[in-house]
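re: that chain from earlier
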Amino acid sequence: QVQVVESGGGLVQPGGSLRLSCAASGSISSFYGMGWYRQAPGNEREFVATTIIGGGTTHAESVKGRFTISRDSAKTVSLQMNSLKPEDTAVYYCYVKPTWNSLNNYWGQGTQVTVSL
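^ sequence. v structure.
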């Protein structure tokens, strides 16, 4: 069983920065893939960024140049968010893909990010 816990959300003004962290636990020594999705009210959950073991990263076009995902350890990942915009307001969810051929991802409960004056 894999447990996923996010932290670091909050309220920030436009142009500000936040750093989200995600820690996962489980019997596997390191997780193949970890990343972030977000969901704003009334919208579907959308991809934000992902990283796979070995260092490969992908970011959504909407956040490129502003957000940076990094694998801090075998079981932790962070998302540095700069130049935040009101449209970045959403619940941010961390996910874990345990191995390269895992059929299911594991998800955290989400952390709220609100960008507003």
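The chain has a mean pLDDT of 95.
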